[in-house]
Amino acid sequence: MEKRIVSVIGGTGLLGGGVVNALLAQGEFKVRVASRNPASDAARGVEVVHADLLDPSSVVAAFEGPTAASIPGTISPTGRVPA
């Protein structure tokens, strides 16, 4: 049986990285990380696609085919976390 895909926005960051670690530890899912920096060495053992939430057209590939998605954290239109 083929593993189901879970897309994780920001999977190379602190919050998303924790989600990725938990999914990998379960071993039940193929993990796809959407990242502004796909070359990041924090993206280990996962499929990495370039995606920048400030450029919606770049996010499309992250959501082609997954069964679920995780979007941890706060997203603001300016790219900054509100105080």
- Mean of pLDDT: 79
Low-confidence stretches: none
Largest sheet: 4 strands, parallel
Please state the structural category.
alpha/beta
The helical percent reads 10-25%
Measured between the Cα atoms of the first and last residue, the distance is 45 Å
Order of helices and strands: EHEEE
Q: Which architecture per CATH?
A: 3-Layer(aba) Sandwich
* Shape field: globular
The strand count comes to: 4
CATH class: Alpha Beta
Number of helices: 1
Number of domains: 1
In terms of DSSP E residues, the strand content is 15-25%
CATH topology: Rossmann fold
Taking all Cα atoms into account, the compactness measure Rg is 12 Å
Keywords:
1 helix, globular, 83 residues
Write a compact overview of the structure shown:
The chain is of the alpha/beta class. It has one helix at 14-26, and strands at 4-9, 29-35, 47-50, 68-70.
What does this structure look like?
This protein is α/β, with parallel strands linked by helices and 83 residues long. The protein has one domain (4-70): Rossmann fold. It has one helix spanning 14-26, and strands spanning 4-9, 29-35, 47-50, 68-70. The chain has a 4-stranded parallel sheet, covered by helices on one side. Strand 1 (4-9), helix 1 (14-26) and strand 2 (29-35) form a beta-alpha-beta unit. The longest helix has 13 residues, at 14-26. The N and C termini lie far apart (45 Å). The mean pLDDT is 79.
List the topology elements.
Elements: E1 4-9, H1 14-26, E2 29-35, E3 47-50, E4 68-70
Parallel strand pairs: 1-2, 1-4, 2-3
